[in-house]
Amino acid sequence: MPEIKNLKKAANRILKAIKNKEKIIIYGDADLDGTASVVILEEAIENLEGNIAAVYPHTKRGHSAFGTKTDEVSPRYGVEVYFVDRENEGYGINKNALAFLKHLSPALLIALDLGITNFEEVKIAKKLGLETIIIDHHQVIDSLPDASIIVDPKQKDDNYPFKEFAAAGLVYELTKVMLKDKMSNSLDNSFLELAALATIADMMVREEDNKTYIEKGLQSLKDTQRIGLKVFFEINSLNSPAGGLKEKEKVQKIVSALNVSEIKDHLTEAYLLLTCQNKGKAKNLVEKLLDRNEARRSQIKDIVEQVEERILDNSDSVIFEGDIGWPNVLIGSVASRVCNKHKKPTFIFKKRKENSMGAVRVPSNMDAVKAMKSCQKLLMTFGGHAPAAGFTVKNENLEKFKKCLIKYFKNV
């Protein structure tokens, strides 16, 4: 069977960086797929005797997959973890993040679950002395960024038959190449658990490779050794007679709670939980995530109702609504609900001072990325998957963008 293009090349470059004690920056998206991808790769490097050093508090944390972490002074080399803050920075590799990370140069920057449309930013990273590897699963738009190595099954000449991986599935395949016989059964199961949750969270098709990850990962999840996940299955609200949930419901609850965790000092709460070695701290984090998830469900419902009021007399071919008060982390869920109800392409955005960031959901017979590509001159950034995508647009172009979309979908 053909191999995923550049997977071995990326594995060998990372192994070389570990051997030569180069600094490695693992730069991930802040959702569950991005977080799971970061944890899998970080722990794989760690098991190859790489040195772990989170950006905050800038310390080395030496530990095996489930061992005890110890804080030491950060070395001149190691692994730095950075999650993009969508609310304040936007999507993908961005200029603010690069400005923050430039002091680590020279380094190997590994972008996970993002980067495939960051043409200008990859050039900036190169000028700063950051060699970029992109491991992404989003649609390629015309050409590719000038990265050192790109792993994305959707790129041209990738002959691997299955294309619909979550990023965590790709990273799992990468770590198998990196670790080879050093991949123990327990580590393999641990990575599969994360790949399964990420694949479910990103709503990828449950076929072929993804089906394997989900089946094996969920089977292993029942006896997980990862403290942060173990606590979910022990928490009272998920197991009490009054609120006890079936296994499938528990998994969905876990996915929902981890998928929109908050970010602080460029580390997601989901990351802190999944790498947590203290059961008491893990329990506090889980309860906090579950409580916040319930509150967000209520917030999403309120925003959906606001959208419904605005579109009562809408006869356009698209739903296009935004507000300064709508949190960026919730607009994807809002767009999904509105699109599912009205069966129309739905563009929901958070309006900021100079630009707006939006989430897109379209019915199954449409392609959100193609639609935005037809209007790309009006956009700062855009990308994603056919049914679900995102964009950034200057506020001065919002109305033009809307008219362009209406025209496109009328023709479709």
Written description of the protein model:
There is one protein chain. The chain has 412 residues and is an alpha/beta fold. The chain folds into two domains: 7-282, Alpha-Beta Complex (inorganic pyrophosphatase (n-terminal core)); 311-411, Diaminopimelate Epimerase, Chain A, domain 1 (Roll). Helices cover 46% and strands 17% of the residues. The chain is built from 16 helices and 15 strands. The strands form four sheets. It has a five-stranded parallel beta sheet. Strands 11-12-13-15-14 form a five-stranded mixed beta sheet. Strands 2-3-4 form a three-stranded antiparallel beta sheet, with no helix packed on it. Helix 11 (247-259) packs across helix 13. It is globular. Residues 50-77 have low confidence and may be disordered.
* Top-tier CATH class of the largest domain: Alpha Beta
CATH fold-type name of the largest domain: inorganic pyrophosphatase (n-terminal core)
Count of domains: 2
On the 0-100 scale, what is the average pLDDT?
89
Helix content: 40-55%
> Which strand order do you get reading across the main beta sheet?
5-1-6-7-8
Major beta-sheet overview: 5 strands, parallel
> What CATH architecture label of the largest domain applies?
Alpha-Beta Complex
| Strand content bin | 15-25%
Give the N-to-C terminal Cα separation: 37 Å
Shape: globular
- Contiguous low-pLDDT stretches (5 residues minimum) are 50-77
Give the structural class: alpha/beta
